[in-house]
Amino acid sequence: MKKLISLILALAMVCAMAACGGSETPAHADNNTPATNNNAQPEAETPTEAPAEEAPAAAEGEAYTFTYGSTKIAMNAEAAPILEALGEPKSYTEEESCAFEGLDKTYYFGSFYLQTYPEADTDYIYCLWLVDDSVTTEEGIYIGASQQEVEDAYGAEWYNGKNAYEVKTGDCILTVILDNGVVNSIQYTAVTQ
Predict the structure, then answer these.
(1) pLDDT tens digit string along 41-74?
(2) Nearest Cα to 129, choosing from 71, 68, 187, 64?
(3) Contact criterion met (CB below 8 Å) for 178 and 184
């Protein structure tokens, strides 16, 4: 139990630190089409060699998404319709954003946390992390999955050589962290400018 609480707190800090790492707000052509910045640096360690092409599971130019029930959650998507579809969270916190003007908001839905960032009068999805094995990525990866299952889903080229797969596609970084060859953390993070 202490390990799970420590993991949740560590992931929350990673999202918060990632939000504080950026100095510019995302540029949106309109409220439905966020811009991407494929030059953003992830908080986790970077792969030793840059992969030549996008990860196999996402369509070309498409970012990974997470689906809960019938609600599809994409990074940089407008938060209001997604939050409405998800229903009442188990808990909610907010704090002044250090990277954007306004409040960063974090919602806990039991099996995952979802964090938003503000731009003008709208909140967008910034980060989502899974906290138990009752939910999976759309590619079937869950907390407790083996390293081989991760490689089968995303490819070996995304492994950083130490403890994580950092799958970059579209405007999302999907980070899968291992402990002794077993997944213990899964996080989606928006790539922002």
Answers:
(1) 333 333 333 333 444 445 445 789 999 999 999 9
(2) 187
(3) yes
Round to whole Å and give the CA distance between 170 and 59: 9
Beta bridge partners of 112: 130
Q: Specify whether the backbone of 31 is left (phi greater than 0), alpha (psi in -120 to 50) or beta.
A: alpha
Sign of the torsion formed by the C-alpha atoms of 99, 60, 114 and 33: positive
pLDDT for position 38: 33
- State pLDDT tens for residues 16-40: 444 454 433 333 333 332 233 333 3
Instruction: Return the number of other C-beta atoms located less than 10 Å from residue 21's C-beta.
Output: 14
Number of domains in the chain: 1
Give the residue numbers spanning the domain of 42: 2-190
List, in order, residues 6 or more apart from 53 with CB less than 8 Å away: none
For the chain, strand residue ranges (E) read 28-30, 33-34, 65-68, 71-74, 91-96, 103-108, 112-119, 122-130, 164-169, 172-179, 182-190
Q: Quick check: 121 pLDDT over 80? A: yes
